[in-house]
Design brief:
Radius of gyration of chain B: 19 Å
Number of helices of chain B: 9
Oligomer: heterodimer
Strand content of chain A: 25-35%
Helix content of chain A: 25-40%
CATH architecture of chain B: 3-Layer(aba) Sandwich
Shape of chain A: elongated
CATH architecture of the largest domain in chain A: 3-Layer(aba) Sandwich
Radius of gyration of chain A: 27 Å
Number of strands of chain A: 19
Structural class of chain B: alpha/beta
CATH topology of the largest domain in chain A: Rossmann fold
CATH class of chain B: Alpha Beta
CATH class of the largest domain in chain A: Alpha Beta
Order of helices and strands of chain B: EHEEEHEHEHEEEEHEHEHEHEH
Shape of chain B: globular
Number of helices of chain A: 11
Strand order of the largest sheet of chain B: 3-4-2-1-5-6-7
Helix content of chain B: 25-40%
Order of helices and strands of chain A: HEEEHEEEEEHEHHEEEHEEHEHEHEHEHE
Strand content of chain B: 15-25%
Number of domains of chain B: 1
CATH topology of chain B: Rossmann fold
Largest sheet of chain A: 7 strands, mixed
Structural class of chain A: alpha/beta
CATH superfamily of chain B: Succinyl-CoA synthetase domains
Largest interface: A-B, 60 and 73 residues
Number of strands of chain B: 14
Chain lengths: 372, 303
Amino acid sequence: MRLYEFEGKRLFEKYGIPVPKSVLLEKSGKVSGIKLPVVLKAQVLSGERKSAGGILFPKNKSELSHGLKKLFAAHIRGEPVQKILVEGRISASREYYLSLSYDTDTRGPVLAFSSRGGSRIAIALKANVAPLDILLGAKPFLIREALSKGKVPSEDINGLAKVIINLWKLFVSEYALVAEINPLFRTPSGEFIAGDAKVILDDEKLNPGERRFIELGGDIAILASGGGASLLNIDALLQYKGKPANYTEYSGNPPADVVKALTQRVLGRPGLKGAWVIGGTANFTDIYETLKGFIEGLRQVKPKPAYPIVIRRDGPNQEKAFAMLREVAKKEGYDFHLFNSKTSMAESAKLMVKYAYHDKIKIQTANIKMKE
Amino acid sequence: MSILVDKKTRVLIQGITGHEGARACNEMLSYGTKVLAGVTPGKGGQKISGVPVYDTVRQALAKHRSINTSLIAVPAAAVKDAAMEAIFAGIPLVNILAEHVPTLDCAEIVARARAKGTILVGPSSVGVISPKEKVKIGSIGSSLVRNVFTPGSVGVVSKSGGMTAEIAVTLTNAGIGQSTVLGIGGDQIIGFDFVDALKLFGKDPETKAVILFGEVGGTYEEQAAEFIRKEKFKKPVVAVVAGKFTARLPQGTVLGHAGAIVAKGKGGYDSKVRAFKKAGVPVAATLDEIPWLLRQLLRGRMK
């Protein structure tokens, strides 16, 4: 879960990382308790807010009230602005970039830092990267060694190390995947103040088992089973010129009610031309249980789907599941096309595209094709 | 021969009294795997399908000295502790079946396993199966699905658990058997990656070729390609990289597996495919292409 800047900064404060004086405004509201000069920062999740017009530097009171109105009416990369963080401006003699994240090369946490702020991507590219030993933790001497190797000036080493140690405490205690400060201001008097906060917390800790869902804008609804299969099959559908409506995935032998809820969400969308229930041969997922959940969800979808539904599944209880589907199609009039693993996943993608876009389907009579 | 598991595999199941643990226990026993003991703290003295349950790993090891593998099937929140228990007890191979283990815990377990010289497969590993040796650990190839894994000479290593069986189906339908098939998990931090698998497959006389199933996110695929190129890996390799379409999603988007994080540049689809091409590894666009690509490579090899 990605946090808003103001949420990230609250965590910074909790862990002893100084942040600028600020006021959080929610849909209008007046600025009080903070003096000009200030910076107005739209609280949205997309990166590169500055270039998208989400950060303003008013010079006087009238620019301030104008700026607030403008930002509250704005959409930053499609995201409406609900909150604005008004912060006192910091005059900095230097700026740093700091981040803690995980790295698959070292299979552990890494510290990245560089002098000078700037755009996220540009800074990250030239940053010094130092792997951290998770068993040892971020020991001050290790951090100082890394900083000195990265040519950080002597007068900044202790202050910077202190910020990094505190950021590390946040990183491990809050189960963060990313904790980044860009820019980190260094004031002329030698203080370090976090100018921004990018914190991503681990969903596996916060909301384990949450189903990921992404809109893809097409007209073929997809219920995919398995993390790998879901990716590979969207690739296959696109290869055959199909237009996926969504990305979602359920796996790990999901109970019927999870599949039911997901089916309602995915198949209940307007403008669909087809639905594709797709998965590889399951090692242990009960196919009957899964498809029972699918049928329960399907029955709730209004209006009743008239579009073709291609189901390609195999694994434990597949035959029993297909017998049930055939029965339902006959009695309730759904346009099911059922395939087991004799038809490859890619082959079923091709058929899905054919049925959705190229075949005239008769809605009144159930059209059940089998290839087993 | 095979990698990681063979006739000498003697298994302990941590979390044996839970739903996943009991199921894995039954499936493994009926496949032919020797499951000697289970551990569930507080349930010592019970039996699951005839397998004795102990309170601690050390207790189980004292009674069953030949245990050399632990399958961890406890809930995600208990994985770190269970894995540490197995690692500190000195079990040489630990396979974590559990999914949804927080990244911090994964990193800690992996670091501890490295420090102790433990081979750690997972988390989120569907298991390891050797169709010829008739041994499997984990959920891989359960119940009727076991028949899709047939003995042969192709090693399969996959980030996706589901795709292990599907690739086996594809190979078996084409008349190609498998030496060992394993799921390494799709988490960001994993204990056993493609390179680890390639090193073992390289030494396994039974394995004549290797299939890698990867996906976007992280750099395990790039590392595998580098390894193949730099070490001049002798056996033919065919790769699959899932998630081409993710190039149009915002950076940082997380997909099905926790490690499938959309990245521009390194970690992205193009980076992985480029790395494999550079290493001379063909990338199959669909699983259907695998048998054909494999035959091409093996034919070239025989000339």
